[in-house]
Design brief:
It is a single chain. By secondary structure, the chain is of the alpha+beta class. It has one domain: Winged helix-like DNA-binding domain superfamily/Winged helix DNA-binding domain (Arc Repressor Mutant, subunit A, Orthogonal Bundle). It is built from six helices and three strands, in the order ααβααββαα. It has a three-stranded antiparallel beta sheet. Strand 2 and strand 3 form a beta hairpin. It is globular and about 60 Å long.
């Protein structure tokens, strides 16, 4: 008997690959906690990593539809969460709570 794999599992794997890249969750968490768009510089300082890493993650998160880049005025660029990533917030919070609960045992 052959077991069919639900195609949604591939999407879950894709999402987990994105979220487990260095600093991806951290960037999403900072943007979520801020509650408003943040500049690249503020994100870089908050994440405390190289500008290259922050830039790569922001580009990847934007391509995946989790972060939106906003351009205002001539040179002002900021980043915010999309509705798609905001809907992930409770799931990510649950993962943190699960880790906290089981790390104590």
């Amino acid at each position: 008997m052959e077991i069919e794999c639900d195609p949604i599992y591939a999407k879950v794997d894709e999402l987990l690959d994105m979220l487990t890249k260095s600093k991806s969750l951290h960037i999403l968490l900072i943007l979520h906690e801020a509650g408003h768009p943040l500049s690249f510089t503020k994100l870089k300082l908050s994440v405390d990593t190289s500008g290259t890493t922050v830039s790569r993650r922001l580009n990847e998160l934007e391509k995946y539809g989790l972060v939106s880049r906003e351009i205002s005025e001539a040179t002002s660029i900021s980043y915010r969460l999309t509705e798609k990533s905001e809907s992930l917030a409770p799931i990510i919070q649950s993962m943190y709570e699960w880790c906290d609960m089981w790390s104590q045992s």
